[in-house]
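Consider the record:
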Amino acid sequence: MWSAKRALVLFLLGVSLRQTDAQSVVSFPPPEAILADVKHKEPKSGVQLSPGNTLTIQSGVGTPTTINVLGFSKDSRVLAAGKDFGRVVVWDVPNRKLLCAVDTGQGIVHAVALSADAQLLATAGEGDRFSLKLWHLPDGKLVRTYNYFNGYVHSAAFGPVGTWIVVSDNAAVTHVLDINTDKQLAELKDMYSPVLSPLGDILMTVSKTNFTVWSTSDWTQKRTLPRSPLYAIPLALSPESDSFVITSSGVFRLLRLSTGEPLPSAPNPELPKFNGAAGGFAAFGTNGAIFGHSNDRLWVWNTGTAQTCVSDLMYSESGSLSPDGMLLAGAKDNSILAQTRSGEGVWIWDTNKLAAKCLKK
């Protein structure tokens, strides 16, 4: 199960990579705010460090404080966090207040998404027959359940006006669902790792051989690009700059959206390796900056200067950039492997201040 995998990944990272990643990269300043869950009764963690530094992992059981995924609303004012044991926490970001907590019954939650008006929350996890559920906010009432999936849901993203949602499952199928009914609008088989453009008018997916660009107005193909390198995965796209971010063999690169050719900008020093089993993200910000999360660290990559800036170990692979590009969020988990303890929850940075402090010109 994912919990055991994640714990093993964290253990290995903590032991072998703590001192090697980002040694020569400028570090993040402290966060400007921390969003925390309320105190609540939680089951016992399935990951324990026994005497003699022996790591014990109970299969299928998570860690109560772990945040697996983060997602902002379109107006950047609401943030949702998917946790283990089916818990999803939602905050009012400007006021630093908890809006609600939803106990989804979906086990380890891997996907969260907020509708354009922030009145609907989509959640999915490893439990409850791999369902996707829609909840009304802020009361947390269940609206609808979708059961189209043959594996757990990797990701979910609402369209720009909140009439549909794109969902990717573990069976290499991308689904487009109508949020007003239980109907499926499109089923893109053998297409996975879907990425929406910032305006939501373009969707990119990947198959064994190609990147495919779709129009979301009618779900027709606009064009295909060769999947090069062979195992590349798309993470973010920017039609405005005619570019998209990929990861291949753990390395991040920038490609031209219109042709698929490599662009000259490459992060220097290299960013922490992307681990597909652990997850991560990338997103285009403002002023040529790309923000992301990989190998337990948040980072910023200035595509104009190639300079990178990397956070300390977060012991978490969940992060998100607000749609307006002004806030970077990353989950901080006080792992059993952590040498020091610090504020647990979601750390928030103002991206302009972050860039000014850690991307020196």
In short: Residues 36 and 164 are 30 Å apart (CA to CA). Helices lie at 2-16, 351-358. The two ends are 45 Å apart (CA to CA).
